[in-house]
Amino acid sequence: MHDVIIIGGGCGGMSAGIYAARYGLSAMIISKEIGGTLNEAHKVCNYPGYKDISGFDLMLKFKEQAESLGVEFTFDEADKVEKKDRSFIVHTKGRTFEGRSLILALGLQRRHLNVPGEDNFIGKGVSYCYTCDAAFYKDKVTAVVGGSDSAALAAILLAQYAEKVFIIYRKDELRCEPINKKAVDESEKIEIITNTNVTEAKGDDKLKSIMLDREFNSSDDLAVDGLFIEIGSIPSTVLAEQIGVEIDDTNLIKVDRSRKTNLEGVYAAGDCTDTPMKQAITAAADGAVAAFSTYQYIKKKKVEKY
Which of 34, 87, 143, 168 is most buried (CB neighbours < 10 A)? Predict the structure, then answer.
């Protein structure tokens, strides 16, 4: 029996583990891998204490600190959660764990284009985090795939650095907010290519061009240095729903200021929650708050028991 089981090995989950251990709680982190979506960030330049660091290396430092404090790790995929009278049961592919409380740090899964070459150039021209990587494309040619606010904001930020920014959207008009559309239209660096899909990413040691499903400027091969994919994310909230945790209309976990869900003993942290900003530092902060709330909950339950 653990005091707290944390599902998720990204910034939120790792931070929760570190803080839980410092409060004297026995903590278990269950995650298929360490890092989550941050592993896709070639360089992180907005996390305090590091001028720049790869997302993967940053997560290794989180793991090293957590292990030094006695946090246990199980590298497996949690596929079922059950609520008992005074505890929670978490099932992985091969084992079962029990905890007095639960912190859900399930993260988001970035949608991929799933086209040839895409995976080959992750961190070498293909990015899913414009706030992480935009500054690396100073005076370069970039493309953003998508038509939502995230795509528009990516293009607006990239235009501060890049020589040229293409927005490639499969429909005939962007569906972003008017204020963002106005900023896109007024930028001399941004050009919109509508009714078009990216079908392949090409290059050698790094991205050199992308293939389009229709010609643009008499060619279906568009030379770019960077491709930013902003076609949405998929919240990983299936486990939360299994035990009746409340989800909002965008499929994110509802939490209060203490990161408590509607279910007693269950807290949530990071990108899977309805907090608006999705960044490494905010996920880490969420994890710290969730661990503190868990500590208070466990302490109260122990007092009630005796």
Answer: 143
